[in-house]
């Protein structure tokens, strides 16, 4: 072999090594997406791997543990295996999950509790939802996710749903005093101007006997 041939072979070998190293540098190592190629929802337990890669745990059945186990954006929601959690009954309505909690709070406290679950105070967009809750929820007052601006503007649902359905009591909303800018739902309570299942406007900062009722968009598992 001549000296020229040896130098040519050596140059080819160096180029091959450089090309192989470059191709390896483009590979992503350690990414896991459950085999589907896409995430099933917000990941609750991502950890950073080497070189900035991310490891995402696969979805698990929802448990009563304060975590979004199934990665759908909701925490401790209803499933075939989970019907109660932390003092709340969990219900599956038509396209909505519900949390019926015995905690007595102000409207703002109820809304904060619901938001921690990925939900809001309950949205009742139709008569079908009203009937479902009437059949499933026990006697008492429950906050709904409807409010009125302090300047006496129109009523609105806090999640942006159009306020097209309402089930006001006979004389409601009556706005008898400033501050009645929230809505409560009454079950099993009747009297003059009242009926079982009626809504009325009430003081947002009144906690006595007002319980938490949350809802969020959710399909049956």
Structural account:
This protein is of the alpha+beta class and 221 residues long. It folds into two domains: 3-55, no CATH class; 84-217, Mannose-Binding Protein A, Chain A (Roll). Helix content is 19%, strand content 24%. It has helices at 3-25, 107-115, 127-136; strands spanning 47-48, 54-55, 84-85, 88-92, 96-104, 120-121, 140-148, 155-157, 182-187, 199-202, 210-217. β3 and β4 (88-92) form a beta hairpin. The radius of gyration is 28 Å and the shape is globular. It starts with a helix and ends with a strand.
Number of E-type strands: 11
SSE class? alpha+beta
Helix tally equals: 3
CATH architecture of the largest domain: Roll
Q: Which CATH first-tier class of the largest domain would you pick?
A: Alpha Beta
Mean pLDDT across the residues is 80
The radius of gyration computed from the alpha-carbon positions, rounded to a whole number of angstroms, is 28 Å
Indicate the low-confidence ranges by residue numbers.
Answer: 1-47
Q: Main sheet?
A: 9 strands, mixed
Please trace the helix and strand order, writing H or E for each element. HEEEEEHEHEEEEE
How would you summarize the topology of this molecule?
Blueprint (H helix, E strand, L loop, with lengths): L2 H23 L21 E2 L5 E2 L28 E2 L2 E5 L3 E9 L2 H9 L4 E2 L5 H10 L3 E9 L6 E3 L24 E6 L11 E4 L7 E8 L4
Parallel strand pairs: 7-11
Antiparallel strand pairs: 1-2, 3-4, 4-5, 5-11, 6-11, 7-8, 7-9, 9-10
């Amino acid at each position: 072999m001549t000296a020229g041939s040896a130098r040519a072979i050596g140059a080819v070998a160096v180029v091959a090594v450089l090309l192989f190293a470059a191709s390896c540098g483009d590979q992503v190592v350690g990414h896991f997406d459950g085999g589907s190629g896409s995430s099933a929802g917000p990941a609750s337990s991502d950890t950073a791997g080497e070189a900035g890669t991310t490891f995402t745990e696969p979805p698990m059945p929802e448990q009563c543990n304060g975590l979004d186990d199934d990665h759908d954006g909701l925490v401790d929601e209803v499933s075939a295996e989970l019907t109660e959690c932390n003092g709340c009954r969990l219900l599956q309505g038509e396209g909505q999950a519900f949390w019926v909690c015995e905690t007595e709070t102000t409207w703002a406290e109820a809304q904060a509790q619901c938001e921690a679950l990925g939900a809001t105070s309950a949205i009742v967009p139709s008569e079908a939802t009203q009937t479902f809750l009437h059949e499933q929820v026990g006697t008492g007052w429950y906050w709904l996710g409807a409010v009125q601006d302090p300047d006496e503007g129109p009523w609105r649902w806090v999640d942006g749903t159009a306020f097209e359905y309402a089930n006001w009591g006979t004389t409601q909303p009556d706005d008898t005093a400033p501050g009645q800018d929230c809505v409560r739902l009454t079950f099993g309570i009747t009297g003059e101007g009242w009926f079982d299942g009626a809504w009325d406007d009430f003081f947002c900062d009144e906690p006595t006997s007002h319980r938490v009722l949350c809802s969020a968009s959710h399909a049956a598992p």
